[in-house]
UniProtKB/TrEMBL annotation:
It comes from the Bacteria. Belongs to the Nudix hydrolase family. This is DNA mismatch repair protein MutT. Keywords: Hydrolase.
Length: 310
Protein backbone atom coordinates (compact mmCIF):
# COMPACT_ATOMS: atom_id res chain seq x y z
CA UNK A 1 0.00 0.00 0.00
CA UNK A 2 1.32 3.45 -0.94
CA UNK A 3 2.14 5.83 1.91
CA UNK A 4 1.15 9.45 1.35
CA UNK A 5 2.90 12.38 2.98
CA UNK A 6 3.12 16.15 2.68
CA UNK A 7 5.55 18.91 3.52
CA UNK A 8 6.72 22.37 2.59
CA UNK A 9 9.61 24.49 1.46
CA UNK A 10 9.54 26.99 4.30
CA UNK A 11 11.17 30.24 3.29
CA UNK A 12 11.66 33.79 4.51
CA UNK A 13 13.43 36.96 3.52
CA UNK A 14 16.61 37.87 5.38
CA UNK A 15 17.09 41.43 4.20
CA UNK A 16 16.52 40.99 0.48
CA UNK A 17 17.89 37.43 0.40
CA UNK A 18 15.73 34.30 0.31
CA UNK A 19 16.51 31.73 2.97
CA UNK A 20 14.99 28.25 3.12
CA UNK A 21 14.66 25.91 6.06
CA UNK A 22 16.24 22.46 6.24
CA UNK A 23 15.92 20.04 9.15
CA UNK A 24 18.52 17.70 10.63
CA UNK A 25 17.10 14.33 11.62
CA UNK A 26 19.44 12.60 14.06
CA UNK A 27 17.73 9.21 13.91
CA UNK A 28 18.21 9.05 10.12
CA UNK A 29 21.45 11.07 10.06
CA UNK A 30 20.18 13.16 7.16
CA UNK A 31 19.24 16.69 6.11
CA UNK A 32 15.84 17.10 4.52
CA UNK A 33 12.76 19.27 4.07
CA UNK A 34 10.02 19.16 6.73
CA UNK A 35 7.36 16.60 5.87
CA UNK A 36 5.40 13.71 7.33
CA UNK A 37 2.76 11.06 6.76
CA UNK A 38 -0.92 11.84 6.37
CA UNK A 39 -2.90 11.02 9.51
CA UNK A 40 -6.29 9.25 9.12
CA UNK A 41 -8.94 11.71 7.99
CA UNK A 42 -6.43 14.41 7.02
CA UNK A 43 -6.03 16.05 3.65
CA UNK A 44 -2.60 16.68 2.19
CA UNK A 45 -2.64 20.47 2.85
CA UNK A 46 -3.63 19.80 6.48
CA UNK A 47 -0.74 17.39 6.81
CA UNK A 48 1.78 19.84 5.37
CA UNK A 49 0.81 22.58 7.83
CA UNK A 50 0.70 20.20 10.81
CA UNK A 51 4.04 18.57 10.02
CA UNK A 52 5.82 21.90 9.66
CA UNK A 53 4.46 22.96 13.06
CA UNK A 54 5.39 19.66 14.71
CA UNK A 55 8.90 19.53 13.27
CA UNK A 56 9.85 23.21 13.50
CA UNK A 57 7.36 25.00 15.75
CA UNK A 58 6.56 27.36 12.87
CA UNK A 59 2.93 28.21 12.03
CA UNK A 60 2.63 28.50 8.25
CA UNK A 61 0.04 28.95 5.51
CA UNK A 62 0.50 27.28 2.17
CA UNK A 63 1.41 29.04 -1.04
CA UNK A 64 2.13 27.57 -4.45
CA UNK A 65 2.17 23.77 -4.81
CA UNK A 66 5.65 22.49 -5.70
CA UNK A 67 4.77 19.09 -7.04
CA UNK A 68 5.31 15.55 -5.89
CA UNK A 69 8.21 13.23 -5.15
CA UNK A 70 7.97 9.45 -4.98
CA UNK A 71 10.34 6.71 -3.89
CA UNK A 72 10.45 3.22 -2.43
CA UNK A 73 11.14 2.95 1.29
CA UNK A 74 13.43 0.31 2.86
CA UNK A 75 10.35 -1.79 3.66
CA UNK A 76 9.56 -1.85 -0.09
CA UNK A 77 6.46 0.32 0.27
CA UNK A 78 6.08 3.24 -2.11
CA UNK A 79 5.94 6.73 -0.64
CA UNK A 80 4.47 9.80 -2.36
CA UNK A 81 5.14 13.26 -0.91
CA UNK A 82 3.33 16.48 -1.90
CA UNK A 83 5.03 19.84 -1.30
CA UNK A 84 3.99 23.49 -1.12
CA UNK A 85 5.91 26.72 -0.75
CA UNK A 86 5.24 28.33 2.63
CA UNK A 87 6.49 31.81 3.47
CA UNK A 88 7.39 32.19 7.14
CA UNK A 89 6.32 35.66 8.25
CA UNK A 90 8.44 37.68 10.67
CA UNK A 91 5.74 37.10 13.31
CA UNK A 92 5.80 33.33 12.76
CA UNK A 93 9.61 33.31 12.81
CA UNK A 94 9.66 35.19 16.11
CA UNK A 95 7.07 32.86 17.63
CA UNK A 96 8.81 29.57 16.81
CA UNK A 97 8.72 27.25 19.81
CA UNK A 98 11.10 24.59 18.47
CA UNK A 99 12.94 22.34 20.87
CA UNK A 100 15.21 19.47 19.74
CA UNK A 101 13.48 16.11 19.97
CA UNK A 102 13.94 12.48 19.03
CA UNK A 103 12.92 13.12 15.45
CA UNK A 104 14.41 16.53 14.64
CA UNK A 105 17.73 17.49 16.19
CA UNK A 106 17.65 21.01 14.74
CA UNK A 107 17.04 23.15 11.72
CA UNK A 108 18.79 26.00 9.95
CA UNK A 109 18.07 28.70 7.39
CA UNK A 110 20.25 28.53 4.29
CA UNK A 111 20.56 30.16 0.90
CA UNK A 112 19.05 28.15 -1.93
CA UNK A 113 22.51 27.35 -3.27
CA UNK A 114 23.76 26.13 0.11
CA UNK A 115 20.58 24.20 0.86
CA UNK A 116 20.82 22.26 -2.39
CA UNK A 117 24.37 21.25 -1.46
CA UNK A 118 23.58 19.98 2.04
CA UNK A 119 20.28 18.17 1.38
CA UNK A 120 20.79 14.43 1.57
CA UNK A 121 18.27 13.42 -1.09
CA UNK A 122 18.23 14.45 -4.74
CA UNK A 123 14.43 14.40 -4.69
CA UNK A 124 14.47 17.23 -2.12
CA UNK A 125 16.88 19.17 -4.32
CA UNK A 126 14.42 18.84 -7.21
CA UNK A 127 11.65 20.35 -5.04
CA UNK A 128 13.95 23.27 -4.15
CA UNK A 129 14.71 23.80 -7.83
CA UNK A 130 10.98 24.15 -8.53
CA UNK A 131 10.80 26.75 -5.79
CA UNK A 132 13.84 28.54 -7.20
CA UNK A 133 12.00 28.97 -10.50
CA UNK A 134 9.37 31.00 -8.63
CA UNK A 135 12.06 33.09 -6.94
CA UNK A 136 13.86 33.73 -10.24
CA UNK A 137 10.58 34.83 -11.84
CA UNK A 138 9.78 37.12 -8.90
CA UNK A 139 6.53 35.31 -8.06
CA UNK A 140 7.37 33.40 -4.87
CA UNK A 141 5.15 35.65 -2.73
CA UNK A 142 1.53 34.83 -3.47
CA UNK A 143 -2.04 35.16 -2.29
CA UNK A 144 -5.01 32.96 -3.22
CA UNK A 145 -8.52 33.37 -4.54
CA UNK A 146 -10.44 30.26 -3.46
CA UNK A 147 -13.48 29.46 -5.60
CA UNK A 148 -15.79 27.31 -3.45
CA UNK A 149 -19.00 25.59 -4.50
CA UNK A 150 -21.67 25.33 -1.82
CA UNK A 151 -22.14 21.95 -0.15
CA UNK A 152 -24.95 19.47 -0.88
CA UNK A 153 -28.39 21.08 -0.77
CA UNK A 154 -31.97 19.87 -0.53
CA UNK A 155 -33.20 19.40 -4.13
CA UNK A 156 -35.51 22.11 -5.47
CA UNK A 157 -38.32 19.62 -5.98
CA UNK A 158 -38.23 18.66 -2.29
CA UNK A 159 -38.29 22.21 -0.96
CA UNK A 160 -41.41 24.34 -0.65
CA UNK A 161 -40.01 27.84 -0.85
CA UNK A 162 -37.77 30.20 -2.84
CA UNK A 163 -34.72 28.58 -4.42
CA UNK A 164 -32.40 30.96 -2.57
CA UNK A 165 -33.68 29.63 0.75
CA UNK A 166 -32.87 25.96 0.13
CA UNK A 167 -30.75 24.70 3.08
CA UNK A 168 -27.95 22.18 3.19
CA UNK A 169 -28.72 18.52 3.76
CA UNK A 170 -27.15 16.59 6.65
CA UNK A 171 -24.44 15.48 4.23
CA UNK A 172 -23.96 19.09 3.12
CA UNK A 173 -23.50 20.26 6.70
CA UNK A 174 -20.92 17.52 7.16
CA UNK A 175 -19.11 18.65 3.99
CA UNK A 176 -19.11 22.25 5.20
CA UNK A 177 -17.39 21.19 8.42
CA UNK A 178 -14.97 18.74 6.81
CA UNK A 179 -13.45 21.31 4.44
CA UNK A 180 -12.61 23.83 7.18
CA UNK A 181 -9.07 22.57 8.01
CA UNK A 182 -8.10 22.39 4.34
CA UNK A 183 -9.39 25.90 3.69
CA UNK A 184 -7.50 27.16 6.75
CA UNK A 185 -4.24 25.72 5.40
CA UNK A 186 -4.26 28.43 2.71
CA UNK A 187 -4.85 31.30 5.15
CA UNK A 188 -7.95 33.07 3.76
CA UNK A 189 -8.50 36.47 5.35
CA UNK A 190 -11.79 37.34 3.65
CA UNK A 191 -14.97 35.31 3.08
CA UNK A 192 -17.46 36.36 0.40
CA UNK A 193 -20.63 34.32 -0.17
CA UNK A 194 -23.66 34.49 -2.40
CA UNK A 195 -26.72 35.59 -0.43
CA UNK A 196 -28.29 32.17 -1.02
CA UNK A 197 -28.79 30.24 2.21
CA UNK A 198 -26.84 27.22 0.93
CA UNK A 199 -23.74 29.34 0.32
CA UNK A 200 -23.91 31.11 3.67
CA UNK A 201 -24.38 27.79 5.49
CA UNK A 202 -21.37 26.33 3.64
CA UNK A 203 -18.94 28.99 4.88
CA UNK A 204 -20.42 29.40 8.36
CA UNK A 205 -18.29 26.63 9.95
CA UNK A 206 -15.13 28.24 8.55
CA UNK A 207 -16.28 31.65 9.81
CA UNK A 208 -16.95 30.28 13.28
CA UNK A 209 -13.60 28.49 13.40
CA UNK A 210 -11.60 31.54 12.32
CA UNK A 211 -13.81 34.41 13.54
CA UNK A 212 -13.72 35.86 10.02
CA UNK A 213 -17.04 37.52 9.20
CA UNK A 214 -18.97 36.30 6.16
CA UNK A 215 -19.75 39.07 3.69
CA UNK A 216 -22.70 38.32 1.41
CA UNK A 217 -23.50 39.69 -2.02
CA UNK A 218 -26.19 39.17 -4.66
CA UNK A 219 -23.59 39.88 -7.34
CA UNK A 220 -22.44 36.24 -7.37
CA UNK A 221 -25.81 34.62 -6.62
CA UNK A 222 -27.40 32.13 -8.99
CA UNK A 223 -30.63 34.12 -9.21
CA UNK A 224 -28.75 37.25 -10.30
CA UNK A 225 -26.59 35.23 -12.69
CA UNK A 226 -29.66 33.76 -14.37
CA UNK A 227 -31.58 37.02 -14.64
CA UNK A 228 -28.57 39.00 -15.89
CA UNK A 229 -28.04 41.25 -12.86
CA UNK A 230 -24.89 39.60 -11.48
CA UNK A 231 -21.51 41.34 -11.57
CA UNK A 232 -18.87 38.69 -11.08
CA UNK A 233 -16.19 40.87 -12.65
CA UNK A 234 -16.64 43.59 -10.03
CA UNK A 235 -16.42 41.14 -7.11
CA UNK A 236 -13.36 39.33 -8.49
CA UNK A 237 -11.53 42.49 -9.54
CA UNK A 238 -11.85 43.90 -6.04
CA UNK A 239 -10.48 40.73 -4.46
CA UNK A 240 -7.51 40.63 -6.85
CA UNK A 241 -6.85 44.32 -6.31
CA UNK A 242 -6.85 43.88 -2.51
CA UNK A 243 -4.22 41.08 -2.80
CA UNK A 244 -5.52 39.22 0.24
CA UNK A 245 -6.36 35.54 0.22
CA UNK A 246 -10.12 35.18 0.01
CA UNK A 247 -12.89 32.60 -0.33
CA UNK A 248 -15.65 33.21 -2.88
CA UNK A 249 -18.52 30.78 -2.24
CA UNK A 250 -21.02 30.53 -5.07
CA UNK A 251 -23.00 28.18 -7.31
CA UNK A 252 -22.21 25.64 -10.02
CA UNK A 253 -23.25 27.90 -12.92
CA UNK A 254 -21.42 30.93 -11.46
CA UNK A 255 -18.07 29.37 -10.54
CA UNK A 256 -16.70 29.03 -14.11
CA UNK A 257 -17.30 32.75 -14.53
CA UNK A 258 -15.55 33.51 -11.24
CA UNK A 259 -12.52 31.48 -12.25
CA UNK A 260 -12.44 33.01 -15.74
CA UNK A 261 -12.55 36.51 -14.26
CA UNK A 262 -9.69 35.70 -11.89
CA UNK A 263 -7.64 34.67 -14.91
CA UNK A 264 -8.49 37.89 -16.74
CA UNK A 265 -7.83 40.09 -13.69
CA UNK A 266 -4.45 38.42 -13.21
CA UNK A 267 -3.35 39.07 -16.77
CA UNK A 268 -4.67 36.06 -18.65
CA UNK A 269 -4.28 32.32 -18.21
CA UNK A 270 -4.71 29.01 -19.99
CA UNK A 271 -8.38 28.49 -20.72
CA UNK A 272 -8.31 24.68 -20.43
CA UNK A 273 -6.99 24.72 -16.87
CA UNK A 274 -9.42 27.47 -15.93
CA UNK A 275 -12.37 25.49 -17.26
CA UNK A 276 -11.41 22.51 -15.12
CA UNK A 277 -10.93 24.70 -12.04
CA UNK A 278 -14.46 26.06 -12.36
CA UNK A 279 -16.14 22.69 -12.83
CA UNK A 280 -16.54 21.72 -9.18
CA UNK A 281 -18.69 19.19 -7.34
CA UNK A 282 -20.61 20.32 -4.25
CA UNK A 283 -18.24 21.21 -1.42
CA UNK A 284 -15.26 21.32 -3.78
CA UNK A 285 -12.96 24.29 -4.21
CA UNK A 286 -10.15 25.48 -6.44
CA UNK A 287 -7.23 27.51 -5.08
CA UNK A 288 -5.96 30.05 -7.62
CA UNK A 289 -2.52 31.33 -6.62
CA UNK A 290 -1.62 34.87 -7.75
CA UNK A 291 1.58 36.85 -7.40
CA UNK A 292 1.66 39.56 -4.74
CA UNK A 293 4.47 41.50 -6.37
CA UNK A 294 3.67 40.94 -10.06
CA UNK A 295 -0.13 41.11 -10.22
CA UNK A 296 -0.20 40.94 -14.02
CA UNK A 297 1.79 37.71 -14.26
CA UNK A 298 -1.24 35.45 -14.55
CA UNK A 299 -2.34 32.61 -12.31
CA UNK A 300 0.84 31.05 -10.90
CA UNK A 301 -0.77 27.72 -10.00
CA UNK A 302 -4.17 26.07 -9.64
CA UNK A 303 -5.11 23.22 -7.32
CA UNK A 304 -8.49 21.65 -6.59
CA UNK A 305 -9.67 19.96 -3.38
CA UNK A 306 -12.78 17.92 -2.61
CA UNK A 307 -14.44 17.18 0.73
CA UNK A 308 -13.20 13.87 2.14
CA UNK A 309 -16.01 12.14 4.01
CA UNK A 310 -15.47 9.00 6.06
Amino acid sequence: MTVYAAGAVCWRLHGDKVRVLVIHRAFRNDVSLPKGKVDPGETLPETAVREVMEETGLPVELGVPLGVTSYTMPNNRDKVVYYWAAEVTPEAYASSSFEPNEEVAGFEWLSLRRAKKVLTYERDVEVLERFQLLVDQGVSRTFAVIALRHAKTIPGGDFDGPDAQRPLTHRGRTEANVIVPTLRAFGPEVVIASTARRCVETVTPFSEATEIRVRTTDLISQDAFEDGTSDVRHVVAKRVRKSKSAILCAHGPVLPEIVREVGLAAGGSRQASLARAGDLPVGGFSVLHLSLEQPGSGIIAIETHLPQLA
